[in-house]
């Protein structure tokens, strides 16, 4: 197993975040979740991404606790992310939501805390709460999720702390070129959720052809494409073999031509909600 899976990128506040992490969206509480988290950490993953709304922070915390006991790693070797849900975006509620997430995870701090969705009229107030947690040293880094350019511009009008991350739906069918360029220009790191479109991309002929060419799987081709675009990626899996496979993307490089071919799969097609039309 290559140790490159632990490679990190320096965020705009100087903290380091792994390029690859494990996502746990739609993984229910229970042994499968605990084992997936443990497997990932034993395979060299150091980043785990969850959220209050996933209702699985306790299982993630249990997996982390057991993995640390079994590997001898320390808490500070890991990078743990969670997110504040839309119902808790007032200043007071966001502060309380952070405490609740910590309690469920069994942790004393998070490495990254995100605003999950840009609910109009609410996210700037919530950001003040995240800034407060950050200034107190309760969280190492703060960021956002599912923000478009105009949301980021609005936030930055009043923000004292710039987000380190914008975690968005990003994959070859939704390449978000303008958003990626804007974030790179602003030194906000883009992070991809659902990089494999819930597995839909794995049947794409071009990706199958490239997988044959490079001796990799279609999933590995997509995850490598993320990295070469400078985008952090957090594929979800509970399968031990796939967790290992998803990490095996640091020993090859896609050519410029092949990157461009994958870019051309773009259809501006989302599988998740449109951040400009959220009603939840």
Automatic annotation (TrEMBL):
The NADP-dependent oxidoreductase domain covers which part of the protein? 31-266
The keyword NADP appears for this protein: yes
Record-linked SUPFAM superfamilies: NAD(P)-linked oxidoreductase
Give the signal peptide range: none
Pfam families given for it? Aldo_ket_red
Where are the membrane-spanning stretches? none
**Top-level taxon of origin:** Bacteria
Q: Which UniProt keywords apply?
A: NADP, Oxidoreductase
Q: Which InterPro entries match?
A: AKR, AKR5G, Aldo/ket_reductase_CS, NAD(P)_OxRdtase_dom_sf, NADP_OxRdtase_dom
**Its family?**
Belongs to the aldo/keto reductase family.
Write the protein's name.
Aldo/keto reductase
Please tell me the species this chain comes from. Alkalicoccobacillus gibsonii
């Amino acid at each position: 197993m290559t140790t490159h899976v632990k490679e990190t990128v320096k965020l705009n506040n100087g903290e380091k975040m792994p390029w690859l992490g494990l996502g746990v969206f739609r993984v229910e509480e229970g042994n499968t979740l605990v084992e997936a988290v443990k497997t990932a950490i034993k395979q060299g993953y150091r980043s785990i991404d969850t959220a209050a709304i996933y209702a699985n922070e306790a299982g993630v915390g249990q997996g982390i606790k057991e993995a640390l006991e079994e590997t001898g790693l320390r808490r500070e070797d890991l990078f743990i992310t969670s997110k504040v849900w839309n119902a808790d975006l007032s200043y007071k509620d966001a502060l309380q939501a952070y405490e609740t997430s910590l309690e469920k995870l069994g942790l004393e701090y998070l490495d990254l805390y995100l605003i999950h969705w840009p609910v109009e009229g609410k996210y700037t107030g919530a950001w003040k709460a995240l800034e407060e947690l950050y200034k107190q040293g309760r969280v190492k880094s703060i960021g956002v999720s599912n923000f478009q350019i105009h949301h980021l511009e609005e936030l930055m009008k009043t923000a004292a702390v710039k987000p380190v991350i914008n975690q968005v739906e990003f994959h070859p069918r939704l390449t978000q070129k303008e958003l990626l360029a804007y974030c790179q220009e602003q030194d906000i790191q883009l992070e991809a959720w659902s990089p494999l479109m819930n597995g839909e991309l794995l049947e794409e002929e071009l990706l199958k052809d490239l997988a044959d060419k490079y001796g990799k799987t279609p999933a590995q081709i997509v995850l490598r494409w993320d990295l070469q675009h400078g985008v952090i990626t957090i594929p979800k899996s509970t399968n031990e073999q796939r967790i290992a496979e998803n990490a095996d993307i640091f020993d090859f490089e896609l050519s410029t031509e092949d990157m461009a071919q994958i870019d051309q799969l773009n259809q501006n097609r989302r599988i998740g909600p449109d951040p400009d039309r959220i009603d939840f």
